[in-house]
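Tokens in:
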């Protein structure tokens, strides 16, 4: 392997030496004055820069044709043919502000920010948008690992960044918080095929900048929904693939009406049988958008949501079952009267979610602007389960007398319901002039959720009040934050960044939960400062350093573990987490290479780490671990080999440790010393090799490697998850001369092309051993998109 690496490095170096490049530079102005801080992006690549204090930009690019996007709240797109050194000056005067980016300007960072980040653009999203969920499409990003309960990327999927699970990845859509207020996770299955409604996304690794909603403890993910279509169009998309996966979508755009209004809509139906037994998904979704703009005002109204019905695949399988039948799904199993194993056919998860957003951008003059958003989310649904020989008392049912015998147990079917409302506002006021960019923002959000259970069937007992609740519990949460951000160019080459946020959180529960009192009344006040420096040594080398502090409250499951079954009238609540995040980075740009390298050290106090165990609802259990840390190096690059080949490798090497870790084993509290943090591989690597043999055709060869990791924090030998290497092939051809359509796009994706038998996730109990979630072998998806 080492020899191959050295040979490959030599060949790449040789190719670079023979590759010719040119300098593209110029000055950006607005209203006759130089315009600093403008993002300059080379479309369809990760190459980007920013104008300096004199409005100057410079890029080194190989010979070829390029589309450049100049953006600073507004956008200007320019095409250029580069066959020699060229000066290209840009005037941004009089442009209409772009709705595509302006509402995220206070949350996102640019290419010269001291924040470690990666972007996933519209083109790359569409290349692989064939029905798989957003986390699966992100799996090739640096230091990202993903998993799928059903094994094929449709249904319940999960993401971890730097080893941190979804409860600590802050997600916003158009700046609106998306993490569930109680669980703190983002459940993507509730928004089936939402990928088709996304314009682009940015992943900030580490704490990132101040944002709205749940605190970022591993990453922040900022998602922007689809852009405005100024011309009328319609498109039909159909995909089909392995495991009877198929997606059908209709998309409509009115184009610009009366120079001010545009309307868009799409609807999708997505179904899959899943890789694992009975792990089907039936997802329906919609997206509606209307916009209005004039010279200084932009208003965007959105409604999106959907419904999902999935067969439960929350539970893994043991090592022996993995060898015998890796597709086995234990959910819904029971033994009938003849001793045969059967499966309940409606062991399903059912949920609906609707989102409303109203976004208003107002420019007051060339320096001042504001963004104000109102939002509302309504979610409701249940999961249904068959229980064999259940204790009737646990479900609030009386013991029946049959003959002379009192029965205490019966087979039954129950539903656990959740109905919730989430609403609030997020806002920011912006000032930009010369070397100064300042933001004052914040948000207020309120959540109320009803948790209740119904027994809908009993085999031997009688339910005296059919469909009466056997538990009722409410959860209410308030979340207020205010932040200020300042970016200031100290000199032409040195930019300072400062950010401070104050956040106030309150959480309250009341009422019984499954026969036990579950009452919580907890409040937190957090102060989160951040600051950093970016130094531009020359056109090729840029360095940055940053520090950020973050605090995060426990979630509902953490409280349940502490309160339920505790006889103490004043239970010891789980503690809030604290994190100090240090980042040090180097960015390099040359004629055909863009390289990003960063070191990070994340020092945690009372980190709520995954114990490796799950509760009876399939949720991972967390516990405060005292002192812990994550330290590592992340490297990603964009390497062009002429006009046809491009390589985008990334590598993350890390050490993730609990210090002086204590846990209960065999009934005793034991000291395990320093141990590896669960679900935190030391090596995560990825690569995309892109080849464009002819115009409108591209082929991507995709690779992901994830090193070994532990399913628990005690480093038990049988809790280790093996490393895996998977590869995929993605092909896309655009037919732009179709006689009936504007264009037809043909796409194909072969996942796990070498049929690797691997496991991406699992859980562990010292008494029961490991359980695994196996992933699909070789599988494919094909698609056709017809636009007219």
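Residues out:
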């Amino acid at each position: 392997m080492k020899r191959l690496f050295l040979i490959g490095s030599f060949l790449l170096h040789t190719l670079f030496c023979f590759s010719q490049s040119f300098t593209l530079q110029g000055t950006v102005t607005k209203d006759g004055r130089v315009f600093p801080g403008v993002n300059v992006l080379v479309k369809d690549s990760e190459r980007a820069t920013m104008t300096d204090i004199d409005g100057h930009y410079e890029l080194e690019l190989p010979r070829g044709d390029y589309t450049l996007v100049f953006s600073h709240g507004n956008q200007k797109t320019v095409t250029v043919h580069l066959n020699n050194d060229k000066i290209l000056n840009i005037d941004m005067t009089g442009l209409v502000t772009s709705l595509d980016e302006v509402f995220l300007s206070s949350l996102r960072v640019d290419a010269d920010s001291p924040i470690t980040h990666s972007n996933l653009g519209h083109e790359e999203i569409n290349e692989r948008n064939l029905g798989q969920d957003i986390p699966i499409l992100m799996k090739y990003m640096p230091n990202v690992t993903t998993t799928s309960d059903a094994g094929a990327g449709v249904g319940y999927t999960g993401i971890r960044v730097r080893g941190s699970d979804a409860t600590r990845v802050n997600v916003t859509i158009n700046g609106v918080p998306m993490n569930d207020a109680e669980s703190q996770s983002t459940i993507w299955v509730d928004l089936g095929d939402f990928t088709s409604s996304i314009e682009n996304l940015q992943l900030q690794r580490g704490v990132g900048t101040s944002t709205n909603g749940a605190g970022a403890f591993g990453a922040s993910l900022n998602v922007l929904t689809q852009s405005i279509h100024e011309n009328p169009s319609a498109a039909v998309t159909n995909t089909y693939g392995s495991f009877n996966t198929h997606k059908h979508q209709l998309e409509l755009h009115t184009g610009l009406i009366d120079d001010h209004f545009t309307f868009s809509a799409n609807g999708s139906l997505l179904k899959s049988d899943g890789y694992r037994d009975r792990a089907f998904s039936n997802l329906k979704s919609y997206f509606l958008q209307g916009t209005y703009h004039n010279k200084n005002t932009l208003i965007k109204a959105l409604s999106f949501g959907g419904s999902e019905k999935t067969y439960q695949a929350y539970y893994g399988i043991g090592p022996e079952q993995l060898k015998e039948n890796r597709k086995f799904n234990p959910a819904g199993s029971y033994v009938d009267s003849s001793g045969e194993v059967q499966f309940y056919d409606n062991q399903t998860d059912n949920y609906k979610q609707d989102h409303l957003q109203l976004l208003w951008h107002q420019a007051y003059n060339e320096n001042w602007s504001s963004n104000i958003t109102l939002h509302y989310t309504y979610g409701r649904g249940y999961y249904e389960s068959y229980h064999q020989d259940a204790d009737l008392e646990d479900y609030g049912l009386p013991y029946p007398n049959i003959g002379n015998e009192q029965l205490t147990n019966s087979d039954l079917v129950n539903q656990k319901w959740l109905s919730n409302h989430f609403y609030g506002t997020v806002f920011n006021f912006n000032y930009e002039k010369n070397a100064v960019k300042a933001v004052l923002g914040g948000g207020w959000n309120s959540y109320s959720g009803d948790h209740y259970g119904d027994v809908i069937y009993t085999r031997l007992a009688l339910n005296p009040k059919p469909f009466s609740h056997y538990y009722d519990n409410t959860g209410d949460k308030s979340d207020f934050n205010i932040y200020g951000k300042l970016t200031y160019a100290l000199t032409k080459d040195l930019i300072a960044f400062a950010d401070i946020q104050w956040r106030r959180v309150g959480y309250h529960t009341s009422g019984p939960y499954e026969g036990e009192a579950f009452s919580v009344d907890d409040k937190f006040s957090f102060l989160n400062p951040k600051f950093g420096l970016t130094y531009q040594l020359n056109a090729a080398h840029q360095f940055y350093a940053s520090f950020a502090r973050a605090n995060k409250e426990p979630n509902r499951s953490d409280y349940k573990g502490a309160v339920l079954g505790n006889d103490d009238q004043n239970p010891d609540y789980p503690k809030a987490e604290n994190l100090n995040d240090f980042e040090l980075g180097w960015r390099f740009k040359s004629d055909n290479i863009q390289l990003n390298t960063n070191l990070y050290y994340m020092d945690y106090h009372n980190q709520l780490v995954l114990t490796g165990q799950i509760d009876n609802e399939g949720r991972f259990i967390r516990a405060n671990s005292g002192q812990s840390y994550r330290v590592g190096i992340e490297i990603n690059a964009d390497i062009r080999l002429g006009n046809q080949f491009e390589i985008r490798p990334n590598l993350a090497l890390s050490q993730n440790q609990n210090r002086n870790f204590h846990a209960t084993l065999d009934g005793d509290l034991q000291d395990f010393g320093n141990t590896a943090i669960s679900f935190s591989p030391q090596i995560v690597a990825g690569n995309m090799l892109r080849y464009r043999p002819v115009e409108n055709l591209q082929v991507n060869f995709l690779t992901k490697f994830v090193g070994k990791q532990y399913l628990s924090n005690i480093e038990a030998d049988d809790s280790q998850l093996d490393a895996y290497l998977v590869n995929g092939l993605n092909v896309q051809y655009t037919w732009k001369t179709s006689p009936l359509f504007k264009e037809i796009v043909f796409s194909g994706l072969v996942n796990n092309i070498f049929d690797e038998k691997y496991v991406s996730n699992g859980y562990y109990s010292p008494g029961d051993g490991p359980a695994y979630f196996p992933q699909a072998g070789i599988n494919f998806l094909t698609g056709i998109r017809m636009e007219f």
